[in-house]
Every structure is written in structure tokens, then in C-alpha cells.
Amino acid sequence: MPPSRKQNYATSSLVIGYALCSSLLSVINKLAITHFNYPALLTALQYLTSSLSVYLLGKLRLLRHDPFSLPTAKRFLPAAAVFYLAIFTNTNLLRHANVDTFIVFRSLTPLLVAAADTLLRSQPPPSGLTFLSLLVILAGAVGYVANDSAFTLTAYSWAVGYLVTITTEMVYIKHMVSSLDLNTWGFVLYNNLLSLMIAPVFWFLTGEHTDVLTAVNSNGGNVFDPVAFFAVALSCVFGFLISVFGFAARQAISATAFTVTGVVNKFLTVVINVVIWDKHATPVGLVCLLVTICGGVGYQQSVTVVKKPHTGKVDDELRELSKGDTDA
Predict the structure, then answer these.
(1) What is the Cα–Cα distance from 220 to 73, expressed in whole angstroms?
(2) Fewer CB within a 10 Å sphere, N or C end of the chain?
(3) Residue 315 lies in a domain
């Protein structure tokens, strides 16, 4: 087989792998939190899987990550704390709302980031096309909320918390992290390992530890039933795989192709969510969701810039990959 054809097959495999992981991840997380109703423990298991996988693959020399050091960990801790809060609020949002609601609020982040950059960081205001795209996103989101028959104050409180934490991470934390000069897998290791260390704090603050102990005692020492075990295991595996396939796919294809893949993934997530169960929006809500996604397409096209040469530091694109649990 000619080398060019082998390369095409390899690239196609990476893109397909990333598309499957990205489109299925939110649905799998929803399945996991539905059958295993312990968000703090679920996220801790995901962090454990990712950090342990990076460490073991590093030992096998299948990837290279920066060594763990206490001074770097201290500097990284604020970023890990915000990352943990973003994942924690995301998981609780999926716990109380459907996947479509999560996608709508995830799509709202460019609007808040643009506003924060302009008002708080004195960045130039969005261009005409960017502003129009942001308005489309907002209109779709407002239409979705207005037609959400499953609206609850609890779900939307978690949604607002998620928006605040993910916007904070995107606007501020990325600049601090880039100064640490970690490679991508070093970032994944620090992010997940420090988040794993933070997890017990929230486990006790939320009182979830008592719920888990009660479940263990009432089930003869077993907190998992077979369906819950399968869903949690799948969630942990896919949470790590999206980092693997996402990083490799971004290196193998152009930024535009990767953006298009991300948009297709959102549509696939909506389709899969509608097909497999009844935990989805109304027909009008789905139309508003698609409007929001289309606004996101326009936004991504309006802010596309030529990629800078790789500096060895974690840039904005690679940071998005290590947030595979939050990005649908």
C-alpha cells in the first residue's frame, strides 16, 4: 500500500475516533450520572482514570509528559480548582437536565467570553459578523429556554454555575497555565491529578459521602449495579480517549477541518440523544438548539485565524482538548 494511502487511512481513523468520542461523551456522561447518582465520586473516578492512564503510558514510553513537581503543582492549583468546578457543575447540570440543555449552555460560552474580553480585559469589540453570530447564539438559547418543558430552577442554577466557571477558565486561567511551559500530556496529568486531590473536599462538603456510605450498607457493600458499573467505566474511558484522539486529530488535519468536525459532533450528539431515549428537548426546543449550533458555526468562522508556530507551550486549542469531559 502506498505511504500516502496509509497516511489517509491513519488520518481518517483519528478523525472518526475523535468524532465518535466527542459526539458520544455527553450522552455517556448523562447515562452514567442517571445510573450512578454521585457526581463528585463520578468525576473523581474520571480524574483517576485519566491521570493513571497518562502516567502508565508515559512509563511505557508511548507518550511523554512533564514530571510532577510540587512547585509546578502549587502554581497550577488555581487552574485545577477552576477546572474541577467546571466539570463538577457540568456533571450536576447533566444530572438535573438533558443533554440538549447542556449543549445550549455550552454554546453560550463564546458570548460571555467575548463580553468579558471586551469589558474586563480591554480587548477590541467583536466584528460585525462575530457580533451577529453571537446574537444568533443568544436568540437560539432564549428560544430554547422559553420552550423547555423540563425547566427547573435547580437545573438552570447549575447551568449558570457552569457558565460562570467555564468562562472564568477560558478568559483568565488559560493565560496563567500557558506560562508554565508544560506539554499537552503534562497539562492533562497535572489537571486531572490535582483535580483528583480536590475531589474529596467536595465529596464531604456536598454530603455525598453519606449517600455513598448509605448505598454501600444497603447493597451489601456494593455501590455499583451492573448497568451503573458499565456506564461509569465507559464514561471514564471516553473521557480519556477524547484527549488522545482530539490531540492526534488536531495535529493531523487543518484547523478548519477540525472545527467542521466539532460542529458535526454536536449535530451527532443531538441525533444520538434523540434516538436512544426520551431524555431530550421538545421539537421546538430542538429547532432552537440547532439555531444555537448554527450561530456557533458562524462565530467559529468569523474568529478563525492563521495558526501560530508551535512554541512548546499549551495554547488555547490544546487546552480545549484536555477539557474533553466538558466539551460535547
Answers:
(1) 39
(2) N
(3) no
